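Sanity check

After download, print the first record. It should look like this:
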Amino acid sequence: VHSLRTFLSRDVSPNIREWDKGGGLPQHIYEQMARLGLFGICIPEQLGGAGYDYLTLGIVCEELERVDSSLRVIMSVHVGLNSLGLLQWGSKEQQQRFLIPQASGVRLGAFALSEPDAGSDVSAIRTSARRSNKNYVLNGEKMWISLATKADHFLVFARVSREHEPGKQLSAFVVERTMPGLSAGDIDHKLGVRAGSTGWLHLDDVRVPQSNRLGLEGEGFRIAMSCLDNGRYTVAAGSTGLIKACLEASIDYSRTRETFGKQISSHQLIKKKIADMSKWYEISRLLYHRAGELKNLGTRNTRETSVAKWYATEKAVSAADSAIQIHGAYGYSDEFPVERYFRNARGATIYEGTSEIHSLIQAQYALGERIDKPLRKELPPYVDSVWRGSK
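Expected structure tokens:
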């Protein structure tokens, strides 16, 4: 954590305001993150990773988003949604080809599930995969894809169709940027996470070898949901860091700003806002730590991760709103970081499952309408002989 904080305070914090305005992070930031071992933070050493546990992944995401959401998004997509999917579902050959280069930071991975007309409703996915000898031919559009113009490997979900049979089975494929027929572009003018890479993919008769299919044909939905469990965990941890950033900024400002002859930190209503932020931070931190410990044990954690993501992202928006109010007119300008925190926080209540979706998930669990079904493959637990553990 010390080396991570040094990197963030020295190389990122002084520049993030300008990078946010410019709409992107410079390449050397990705390279520095790779050198720190962040891109394989919880991947076993024998697969090119740093060998830490899942709780460490959460702590790293908290620290990153405490500075800016764009840094945590990289971890969510590359590690949570892609690399951990390869660790759970990939064959040994696929892990050698794709996971090891990603864990070592030589290659970047991304996750391509959402489409122009398919977000929360996964059943609306239209991207198709047609069998052709030992290949699949993919056609379709993917939208709101983080690292779309940066990643080398994409975990793409498509409906497989066979002769005389419509595409019903959702399957997962590793699509490589160098494959003919794949094109990508950036989405500009976003409300928040402006320093992060977000874009679209177009697949035009992209021929993908059968060896690039992740898992069995028809397992795409299960793979996608298991990957989302990992991604949502990183979002929960990151949003916890954003709450902390709002709290710290509010404390600093309230101790220097004076009204009616005294620091505004002495006003009771300001104290109430700061107390709420402190409470939200502590609860969010406990929630994602609980999910992380369950992941370390190899225990199914869909419910716990969902509530952690739901709570932390909602409270990050509330914390950013309160921080702006404490800063007054200055909070409405980019002279202080809280306006960026507010813009960044808002998106997390939409991606990785909207707040509405998570409220339904929690209601279904509480009512006994939702029961986790066993997966064919579970994410490996933290094991001393495989992972080095937290340091």
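If your output differs, re-run the checksum step. Summary of this record's structure: The two ends are 9 Å apart (CA to CA).
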